[in-house]
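User: Before I run my own analysis I want an independent prediction to cross-check against. Here's the chain; please return only the structure tokens and, at the end, one sentence I can use as a sanity check.
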Amino acid sequence: MSIVMAAAAAGSAAQGSAEPKNIRISTAETDLVLQVGTNGRLYQVYFGDRLRHEGDLSNLDWRVHAASDGSVSERGWEVYSGSGNEDFFEPAISVTHADGNPSTYLYYESSAVKAVNGGTQTDIRLRDDKYPLEVTLHYVAYERENVIKTWSEIRHDERGEVTLNRYASTMLYFNEPEYYLTEFSSDWAKEAQMGTQKLLPGKKVLDTKLGSRAAMHMQPFFLLGLDGPAKEATGRVVTGTIGWTGNFSFTFEVDNVGNLRVIPAINSYASAYKLKKGEVFTTPEFIFTMSSRGAGQGSRNLQAWARKYQLKDGMGTRMTLLNNWENTGFDFDQEKLAALMKEAKDLGVDMFLLDDGWFGNKHPRNDDKAGLGDWEVNASKLPGGIAALTKAADEAGVKFGLWIEPEMINPKSELFEKHPDWAIHYPNRETYYYRNQLVLDLSNPEVQDYVFGVVDRLLADNPGIAYFKWDCNSPITNIYSPYLKENQGQLYIDHVRGVYNVMRRVAEKYPQVPMMLCSGGGARCDYEALKYFTEFWCSDDTDPVERLYIQWGFSQVFPAKAMCAHVTNWDKTASVKFRTDVASMCKLGFDIGLQSLTAEELEFCRQAVATWKRLEPVTMDGEQYRLVSPYDGNHMAVNYVSQDRSRAVLFAYDIHPRYQEKLTPVKLQGLDPDKTYTVREVNLMPGTKSNLKADGKSFTGDYLMKVGLDVFGFADMQSRVIVLE
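Assistant: Structure tokens:
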């Protein structure tokens, strides 16, 4: 049920006749307070720890933030500032009206509140006083998880099209002595690399212009330290992420008096959007949390929220798997795959996943140069089709999963021969190919139907398919849509909307089919796509040492059950135990030829799979505490605690210790101080015993959190998995 909070005429408000009005957006720990000024416009007046007394809101004043001499000013922190007004800094919205006027002044019209799943939604309607253009700001506050998500809707009733030059999801303001930004830079096999810098006057922009596979160089999330660089367990930290799998931008602007505005948005680069009369332009969701107990608490906020409300099947279990890619590449046949399915069963995993190379006949997919777009089974490799594979999997006692890349096309394909106009490419220039492929134009509804049809036909014809690994290996190159013709400024946006439309249709028709979101590694990791995917592939880099850094970075924003990690042969200098222990802190899988393992290694892997399944309720659904960062030295430690705090799992890794360096105990977090926990080291190689001094002993949670355990050593790439019950 919606409750109208207020309604004010913009015209009269602009004359100064309206009294200030507060709109409070609250979680259990945070208040975001907006205020309608006496001039009728909407301002942010507070963002911080929740105010205990309602009456204190009356002391907040929209005018206090803008004057450099400390005096009251008729300018404040406008929540959705328009270009062309009296504000001198980066706007949230820039519109060229149908008559060519480039200015926008938005005035408060009304607001409403309603209950939604897990939270409270506040909708605020703003309107230009000279043009029939309106913006509706949406906020959903999740009280228990201390998470807020926000997005905007823009529409107009002008006689002609208006041009949107900028269209942010929201704006947030801060008034602190200093600001420190932690960004997550990236590249293939180098995802989520953390770096921190102090923000100085001017603008710092994190953005991407790749269109598809858009997070290849910059991940779509950040940490903002408000009283120093973001720390793990102390200090005030804002963690933010945008739900957009295309071009995004985060603008951080420190103004002339040291205030900071943060503007999350679709990147408007090459994207002037022609908005028709009555059409609604919806921005992506920006999701954020403020923690007064460091980045770790912010991560736990987002992880709990995602499991409950955003991630597909976020409260469900996950399947362990054996993938064939590192074992066979493109070189396989029906018999070889059937044998691998039996290996999967012997290993104890739930599923066998067939990767790239199973399709194409006229242009067979024997390498990455041909076949994309032709999603029929390669008859020479797999004469029995998918049906024979699902039958073989069933006989082996495992589920069957399949790799697809339905948004892409090779020029060497039947699809391109029939529909070259379905590929994004220039009509009059030499074509540039990234990874020998082009991106299908999903701004075109006909292409959307085709891509949906690929998945639909596979599942309709082969109901035994239990899982998809959905890949996206190329950014958009040759940036021209044959479908959009003169509206090329809409390509980047309409393409991503088309991608989401296909994903939505698949999820609605096949809600029980889990899917991995992959993009040449971790170049797709947004919470909009994860509404339709159960998990994502963090990186093609499965070197266990590199994975420690990658998984540490992604865990700042995502729960462990959303992060896929596989045991492979990327670094054979690392033991199978170390590789497996690194993968076990996320959603466990294997991509390795079991024949290459010794009998002891294979038995260890079997035991590790069984242990992972037994501990899944703790590691995948419990609270995560990052204890020792790989960025701080030569070791790493993370512990998970079950929701009832009766069980915990500690992962400890020695990376490359210095000779006889000083080692200190690891102090756990999140335990019940008054419970007694028995300590057991698990994931031991067959025939070996733990040399952990605390193994088999019992300690109070208070002791374990204040004194800790000696778990680190001096050996390269050594690991421990310790269960506390």
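Sanity check: The chain is about 20% helix and 30% strand.
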